[in-house]
Design a protein that fits this description.
- It contains 2 helices and 32 strands.
- It is mainly beta.
- The protein has a single domain, classed as Neuraminidase (6 Propeller), CATH 2.120.10.
- The protein has a 4-stranded antiparallel β-sheet, with no helix packed on it. The chain has a 4-stranded antiparallel β-sheet with strand order 3-4-5-6, with no helix packed on it.
- It is globular and about 75 Å long.
Length: about 475
């Protein structure tokens, strides 16, 4: 009898433990971020270039396509490709700074499979502005989009979490201001019913046509409400057109906006907006024939990029046809767009590679300009949600690399690269781009007269300590 009672008690205890493990709150869902007020600056404040230097290099690796994220606690993180050539492989590299970008540790290789020939590509990094950081990238071998997450300021990362649709290219990631929603946009392809059952004849005049018919392309939108544990798939903004995303944002009402280049007729750049959970999309064309002068529909770095400000306004920066100007447009209601304003300089030969970020009332745009054979990186900022802009600020007059200084411009890495810009929430802006040889240049731009974490701005209160609201405790992992 006593033995049966002990067995019963043990069974009940085991069941209670299972229920507790199932129902206890996940560390990824136990809090919602409460945004703090962005610091105000003096009326005469202008952006100041503090420093331009090279991020520490990892021997044997080139580092194109950098993406930066930063928080108000002084942490800055950068990811990029880590390219090796013998054999060709790509890893994902990570740099961290704990002092607002003043110093950097050596990069960490997050994937460690490039030297074996694996291709891990197109990383995108985001943060909720608090302790949580998110990374998404594509992997050639599996074809999946891979996501990682960190809850300690990008110092340690979760296991790989797959977004379960194939085959993905050029993923970009956005987080809602309250940290509850993640959205990934990506160019997707699937095998169609017309996949050849036998090898194609290399001399077949319809070979390319048959290859194109073997796959179906679509613009993928994937949304997670549990910090990346599970993902849902929304409808495509462009049906089965081949579209490449370059930025995506989501607000606290789960409205989503993304910027794209779509193949066909010289390619076009566009913004797509959904305000009903992806059931319908409104697409706005920015440039109808973006690059009829280029043989490739996407490369040439003429892509549009989009950002969400502290009042839920949208801002899109983009390159004109022929790559002659960088323009900016804004929309407060996600429906109507203000007239475009020109950000780039006059009398230049070419512009490329716009990047954008917004934080509170601030909007930041960087881009590249070419005169003759040399490129320069430029910055302009707005402190009133895009109404007025600071004068163009050249970021690259002098770049301090580890073994040399570069003046009077630089050479870009190639035709398939990107730059990145991010506000840390305290008035410090980080701008990054790669130069020929795969080195990453990092520029610091300050709007505040005081730049150390914890110091009070002359005109306003800085962001307060983290304030978090608890959510339901009955959240499964």
């Amino acid at each position: 009898m006593a033995r049966n009672v002990a067995i019963l008690i043990g069974t009940i205890a085991g069941l209670l433990i299972v229920v507790w493990l199932w129902l206890r709150p996940s560390p990824w869902a136990e809090a919602i971020l409460v945004p703090a007020q962005y610091p105000a600056f003096r009326q005469d404040a202008q952006p100041q270039l503090v420093n331009v230097s090279q991020l520490p290099a990892l021997n044997g690796y080139a580092s194109p396509k950098p993406v930066v994220a930063a928080d108000r606690f002084g942490n800055v993180a950068v990811v990029s490709h880590g390219v090796v050539n013998t054999p060709l492989g790509i890893d994902i590299l990570l740099w961290l700074s704990g002092d607002r970008g003043d110093s950097w540790g050596q990069p960490e290789n997050l994937t460690k499979s490039g030297k074996a020939g694996e291709i891990n590509f197109d990383p995108w990094l985001e943060t909720d502005g608090d302790c949580r950081y998110y990374l998404v990238y594509a992997q050639r071998r599996q074809g999946n989009l891979i996501s990682l997450r960190s809850k300690d300021f990008a110092k340690s990362w979760s296991r790989s979490l797959q977004i379960p649709w194939k085959f993905g290219d050029r993923p970009v990631l956005g987080t809602s201001p309250n940290g509850k929603t993640l959205v990934v946009a990506a160019a997707m392809t699937e095998r169609s019913a017309n996949v050849p059952t036998e090898p194609l004849d290399g001399n077949d005049p319809k070979r390319q046509e048959k290859l194109r018919a073997a796959v179906v392309s679509y613009a993928g939108i994937f949304v997670s409400s549990d910090h990346g544990s599970t993902w849902g798939k929304w409808t495509s903004p462009f049906g089965h057109e081949n579209a490449i995303p370059f930025a995506v944002v989501v607000d606290n009402a789960n409205r989503v906006a993304a910027s794209w280049v779509i193949e066909g007729d010289g390619s076009r750049s566009a913004v797509s907006v959904s305000q009903d959970g992806g059931q319908t999309w409104t697409n706005t064309t920015l440039v109808k024939s973006l690059q009829p002068d280029r043989p490739h529909p996407f490369n040439g770095e003429r892509f549009p990029v989009i950002a969400l400000d502290g009042s839920d306004g949208l801002h899109v920066a983009y390159v004109t046809a022929g790559a002659t100007k960088v323009l900016i447009q804004s929309s407060a209601d996600w429906k109507t767009w203000k007239d475009a304003a020109v950000l780039s300089n006059d009398s230049i030969d070419e512009v490329r590679m716009a990047a954008i970020d917004a934080c509170g009332p601030m909007v930041h745009v960087t881009w590249m300009e070419r005169i003759s054979n040399n490129w320069q990186a430029y910055y302009r900022g707005s402190r009133d949600s895009g109404e007025t802009w600071s004068p163009p600020l050249c970021l690259s007059k002098s770049i301090e690399f580890s073994d040399a200084s570069i003046a009077n411009g630089f050479q870009i890495y190639g035709d398939d690269d990107q730059s990145s810009v991010r506000d840390d929430g305290l008035g410090r802006v980080h701008a990054l781009w790669s130069v020929h040889g795969g080195r990453i240049a990092h520029a610091i731009v300050d709007w505040s007269s005081k730049t150390k974490v914890g110091e009070q701005n002359d005109a306003a209160e800085l962001w307060p300590t983290r304030k978090m609201k608890s959510t339901s405790a009955a959240t499964t992992r």
